[in-house]
Specification:
Helices cover 81% and strands 0% of the residues. The chain has 167 residues and is an all-alpha fold. Helix 1 packs across helix 3 and helix 2 crosses helix 8. The longest helix has 41 residues. The two termini are 26 Å apart. 34% of the residues are buried.
């Protein structure tokens, strides 16, 4: 999918299209989410009201995608994940001892890791899986995802809006 196709989809469906693109971005990395959000800010945000609407739509779309990945993590469970690392971890340079250390760190700081993880490229796509695997409380997970995604999406939508306003 090219940037032109994305722009046409956005122009034709505005808020709904933006939310669906944010959802799809969790599963199909079409373009980096930062570029997608800047494009959305440039093409759809004409004022502060539009910015708030786009932020709500993209945050909702991203959060639904995160919830799907969280559910997948819960379905996989800790036992399967540990067995995978024990069997294949050496091929991705992840020893069982290192894995256990990461698991304990995640358990101690799951809210902070999940929230801040939504503001880190690449990590934001994968952190919902361990949150589900290690059974982070669903309410805390949703709160962390909404907060972190709002920060990420808001920053890049605003950059796009500023670029549009300056053009």
């Amino acid at each position: 999918m090219t940037v032109g196709h994305i722009a046409a989809l956005i122009a034709g469906h505005a808020v709904l299209g933006a939310g669906l693109l944010a959802l799809a971005e969790k599963f199909l990395p079409m373009v980096p989410s930062s570029a997608l959000l800047i494009l959305l800010g440039m093409k759809t945000v004409a004022g502060p009201g539009d910015l708030a609407l786009m932020l709500a739509a993209t945050t909702l779309g991203s959060s639904v995608g995160c919830l799907c990945l969280y559910g997948l993590g819960r379905a996989l469970g800790e036992g399967r994940c540990a067995a995978f690392v024990a069997r294949y971890g050496q091929y991705i340079l992840l020893s069982r001892a290192r894995y256990d250390h990461l698991v304990e760190g995640y358990r101690r700081h799951h809210f902070q890791v999940t929230l801040l993880g939504q503001t880190i490229p690449t990590a934001r796509a994968y952190l919902p899986l361990p949150a589900g695997i290690f059974r982070m409380a669903p309410g805390r997970f949703v709160l962390a995802i909404l907060m972190g995604t709002s920060i990420w999406n808001g920053a890049f939508l605003t950059i796009g809006y500023i670029i549009r306003a300056g053009a």
